[in-house]
Each structure stands twice: as C-alpha cells, then as structure tokens.
Amino acid sequence: MSHNLPDSLPAPEVDLLSPMLNQQGQVWTADFRGLKLRTALQPIYSISHKRTVGYEALIRAFDNDNSAVLPLHLFELPASEAENLLLDRLCRYLHIRNYSEIKDQVNWLFLNVSPRVVTSGSQSDSFFGQLLEKTGLPPHRIVMEIVEQPTDDAERLRDTVAYYRKLGCLTAIDDFGAGHSNFERIWNLSPDIVKLDRTLLTRATEDRRARQILNGMVSLLHQSGCLVLLEGVETRDQAMIAIDAGVDFVQGFYFRRPCLELDELPQSTMNFEDLLEEYKSSKQISHDPTQLVVNHFSGPFRRVIERLQKGLSMDQACFELLSHHTVSRCYLVDDQGVQLEDTLVSESAVKKQDPRFRPLENTSSADWFRQQYLRQALAQPENIHVTTPYLCVTGAYMCVTLSLAFRQDGKLRVLCCDILANADHNP
C-alpha cells in the first residue's frame, strides 16, 4: 500500500500518518515508498542495577521480497524537507505504537530524532505531544536522542531540547566523542544522558592512553551532571573496559543485538554478576598499583626524611633515592606549597630529558599548592601519599608522585618525589 506524500506539512497531525500504519496482532508496521518499516529494539543496561533500564528503537526496512534495506538507503529516499520530516515522524509513531504493546511499565524508550528535523521543524513540535496523548505513553519514559553533529541553528536546537524537557521527556546527546563533538554542546543543551561514540571504546581497547582519556571523559561528564551510556560494546574485554570507566549504562552486540521479535525482549536477561565478579577479582589480584609503589619506596623515602632532619643537604639526603632507575626527580616544598630549592634530577632522567620541554625544567620557587598530593601531605603529616599516574608539567612525561610532610627545625616541609609511571619498579 502506498500513499501520496504532501509537498508540505501544514499541520503536524497524527491523523495524517495513521493510514500509513498497519497492525498485525500486537506488532505494528508502516509503509513508506513501497517499503515495509518495522521496529527493532536493543536493550540498554545499567551496570549497577544489573538489569535492563531501557531500549533504543531502531528502524528496519524491507522491500516487497522481504529483503532488508539498509537504514542509510531508507533515509536517502526523502526528496524534500517535508518528506524528511514525515519519515522522521512516521518512525517515531511506529516505535511508540510498538513499545506501547510491550508489557513493560517502567523502562525508557530511546528515540532518535534527526537534527535536520529538529532545526527545520517547529520548536514546539506539537506532533510529538499529540502522539504521546494518542498512544498514552507517559513522556517521562521517553529519552529523545539527538545525534551530535553541527547545526546551522544552535538556538533553535536548544529551544527544541527545552521543549522536550518541558514536555516531561529526558534528553540525550548521541555519538558524543566522534569527529567534531565537544563539551560546548553539553553546556548549551544540558542533556540528561550522553551516549559515547563506539570509536572511543575501540581506541580504548587498543591503547591504554585512550582508556585513561575515556575514564577522564566519563568523570567530566558526571561532573557536568550527565549520566553516561557507552554504546558499541561487542566483546567481554570491552564490557570490562566499560565497567572500569565508570559509565552508568551499556549497550551493544555483546549484550544483545537489536531484536525484531519484540515480545521476547522482556524475557531478555544479562548475567552481570559474572562480569562484576571478574572485575572485582581483577582489582583484588592486581591490588592497588600505586600502593605497591609506596611499599617499594617507603624505606628509602623515610631515610631521606631522617637525613634532612639531621641537617644533611638535599643532595646528600636524596642520593640513595635518586639512584633508583625509575626515580626522575626530588624536591622540597614549604607549608605554602612553594618549592624551596632547585629540583634534583636523577642521572637517568637527565639522559631522557626532551629538549623541546626545556622551558619547563627550572622549577625554583614554583608553587605546587594546587596539586592534590601536596594538600594531602599537609593535611596528614607523617603519612606517605601517592598519586595516580598523571602528566608531569616539568617534562611532559607520565609519572606518579610520592609526598610526605614532616617537621624540620620546627617548620613543616613536604618532600616530593616523581617516579616514572610506565617503568619497572623492581630494583
């Protein structure tokens, strides 16, 4: 069955699209340009809850021979903005019709909305409000996903997102971290959920530095007030990376492929117990790598303190510590965070110094109070503190820093020592 498509949509009436939908039992399909459109749902899981918390609705198209047509080809069919708008609304109508038939009264439905539609349509998209009213699906169960890409009308996009939020829906930015995406969109739109692009996960699988960036990005998004969903999880190793990154939700082929048999979804479960047990076990087996550093250097570090308290110079006190092949530098700081003397650099570190970063080498009178390791040491004297790996500003290399506050001639001092993060700490 085909329908003549209007050149424009004078009114976003749900009734305009209703004749394009067909119901067979509890399953709805739609007709568009001789193709049959169906809804596929892919579960979204909360790691902490260990269960499904939502489903992303995806469109699937089939020709007269019931052969699948790529979604990319489907969305190339509209010949005008009006037809593009109609297809977008038809897909949302179909998905909500099908989701309303599922015996699930709690979880979210994630709906994709094209930025072209968002920025060209009415900001108050009254069609969607009519659709929810007609189907009876509560707006708080809808997550409107907006693909992260440039738009010529950022203000209208912001207004549209505000409309969906006012309607009672949640909003999400899709494919964040791909190509042009940046945090400006997060600040402007204040989405409830950010979906990280799968390329971030692919890189994190291959490169440990990319894994650290992924973890940092998740932390920044959480500080921005967003829940984080990592999509494209295809292997068990990637599932473990997602767990370690601290994301809230996961989605991908490893857990469940998009499913056309919608009645099977409520029975779909995923055993997160095994994944979380494996994660806990890996953390227990490896212990805390930074604590291993403290244990290894505790003796030499405290001997430096004893020598300084006896009146020896920094050169004399730090000789043993600087002779270790992983130690790059030692320096002394006062209770205000200001460095007291020139930094002592080990011979091995001198050989590895990169001349491109020479402007950063001289740290005489540098102020380190902003550094957490300095403030921790001042807050808890006599205890050795250690950082997680970070990029050292004096040489642009990855290191961990040991710090310990002690009394010398009645004054509080902090001894700091940088240790190469990627080196072998065995003597």
From TrEMBL:
**Record GO terms (molecular function):** cyclic-guanylate-specific phosphodiesterase activity
EAL domain mapped to chain residues: 20-272
Q: Which domain of life is it from?
A: Bacteria
Q: Mention any Pfam family matching this sequence.
A: EAL
This chain belongs to the protein called EAL domain protein
Could you tell me which species this protein originates from? Marinobacter nauticus
